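Hey, I'm writing a tutorial for new members on how sequence and structure tokens pair up, and I'd like a real worked example in the thread rather than a made-up one. If someone can provide the structure for the chain below, I'll link this post from the tutorial.
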Amino acid sequence: MKYQILDINEQEIASKYHLSSLVAKVLTKANLNDSQIQELLTHSDTLTKSNAKCVKEACKRILQAKENHEKVFVGGDYDTDGICSSAIMKDVLDKLQIENGYYIPDRFKEGYGLSSHTVELAHANKYMRQVINEKWMRQGVTFVNPDTTYVGPDVTFGHDVTIYPNTYFYGKTTIGDYTVVTPGTYLNNATIGSHCLIDASEITDSIVKDECQIGPYAHFRMNSVIEAKNRIGNFVEFKNTHFGVDSRCAHLTYLGDSDVGSKVNIGCGVITVNYDGANKYHTVIKDGAFIGSNCNLIAPVTIGENAVVAAGSTATEDVPDTDMAIGRVRQVNKAGYGKMYLDRNRAKKAMSKK
């Protein structure tokens, strides 16, 4: 916020209204004109000699917060030894139109001097959590346990959303209509569509579109986009990946720097090998492809439409449309070698115990 310095300076304000230089400095930097200053000074006896210490402390804290672009936390009724009451702080905040500020009313009694790593900060967080959660519950969002649901001020919810305990919503996260979020979920700058299930998963800076079932224990990050009607299962990580409509990735997979088409099946244990120690490379998996379990896709590589990568393969070359790639060592069975190997090891173990 850029301050607009008034035509009259703080010394003139201090002299005109018999104020301290500190209070005058706040008024000067608050984008108020002369008539607004007069209104502030006469409003509810805010700036009278009887509470001069309170006002001085209030103005000091507001000025510091504005200059540092920080939030202003205030609250509580306090003694007369220079600690400002919430009523005075509210008057000052209202008149100065503090941007991005929180006002905590009198019923919150321990909120003065809030800073990191303090009991007061924990109390203020608890209070603000209650305020935010109650706002959304009144709009039809179901919080199974609001005391253990953590919602940031810029988060938004759609209609008939259900939120279970031990869930975290931060940044500019949005949750679509009729979506359910289960315990253990952490969302930060995430966009979640309607009719989704987000089950114990972490999603940051990414988008999940309508009718998706995610998790448990999925992790999406760095601008991943999951299109509609997808099923992403447990222990799956997407990084900078676009995952097409109505595809499947059920478990134990890493897809990084990838474009995946629609109606693709990604088997268990698939990895896009996208980093050679110096550079990141891209993987493309086109519509209808089938990637078997325990496959490595060595990027850069493209898997064509309706192509198959056989289970256990390491794909180092592009696979044309409709082809099958098999990249694994051919199995050889050695007659009797299994028993010989086991007998030898068992004998060594028996000898070691003597």
